[in-house]
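Risk register update: the risk of archive-format incompatibility is retired. Evidence:
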Amino acid sequence: MIELLHKKTGAVLASIDAPNLAKADLSNMSLSGVDLKLQKLFYVDFTHTDLSDADFTGCNIPYVRMRGANLQRASFEGAQIGQGDMTDADLTDANVRRAILFATNTKDAKLHGIRLSFSNVSFCDFSERDLSGSFWKCVDFSKMKMAKAAFRGSQFIRLTFQGCDLTDASFADCKLSGLTLRNCNLEGLDFSGSTLRNVCVINCNNLHLAKGLTAITHKPAFSRGDPSSIDVATLRSCLHGLPDEFLLGLGFAQAEIALWRKLYSDLNRETEEA
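Archived output:
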């Protein structure tokens, strides 16, 4: 018999007649504030369960079902969540710091105020989510669907976006420091009013299709004074559509920009003739 206790009062919220919680059916229950830290929750079904303020600290949570669950202010700090289903779950103000979130279905989930610092998040769907006003540090995003996600007014420090789809997403009015964009789809991504400090763009072949490139404030890095940068692959693909104002903000001199434009114009002409 397993008793599920409230994390503060110690009150028994539910009793499960099983040796462990693996594959337990805990759906449609009221477990607000439940203490589940360090549990192994393999294949547990929390569908439509109230888990607000629940403590999942350090849990191993593969293949969990949390469709429509109330996860407001729940703590997943240090947890490993893999290939789960959080469709339509409410993760408002949830703590997912220092966690791993992998291939978990977050379609239509409420993510406003979610805390993700020092986490690894991959193969998840944050498309069209309202993530405005977020403050995240040292998050690695990989292979994410983030089309039309709203990050407006957020502050990001040392975030990495690897192979992410940011089509028509918004970084408007964001403070972006130490950000890396690698192999990302940036078409329609809105930088209007954002501040860039030591941002690195690598192999993003449609940077020129991003919005608000002339409405960016560029600042040097705190320690070395380095400007933001783009690699040669990005420059070669996008130079024809990148405004001088944006390139000057990256630290290029006007004469340097003119040389780059001539060089790549000549190379493109030779490629077409060949």
